[in-house]
Amino acid sequence: MVAPPPSQGSSPSAPDRLGLVMGGGGARAAYQVGMLQAVAERFPNLEFPIITGVSAGAINAVHLAAHPGTFAEAVDDLARLWGDLTVDQVFRVEPRTLILNTLRWGLQLGSGGLIGAPQMRSLMDATPLSTFLGAKLNAPDGPIPGIEEKIESGRLRALAISTSSYSTGQSVTWIQTSPDIEEWERPQRRSRRTRMSLAHVLASSSIPLFFPAVEIEGQWYGDGGIRLSAPLSPALHLGATRLLAISTRFDRTTAEAERPVVDGYPPPAQVIGQMLNAVFLDLVDQDAWRVERLNRLLRRVPPGERSPYRIVEIMTLRPSVDLGQLANEFELQLPRTFRFLVRGLGTREARSQDLLSFLLFQPDYLRRMIEVGRRDAESRMGEIEALVDPDRARPPPPPAPEGRRPRGAHERPGRPSGSGGGLVPRTGIFDI
Question: Which of 9, 197, 206, 289 is deepest in the core (most CB within 10 A)?
Answer without folding.
Answer: 206
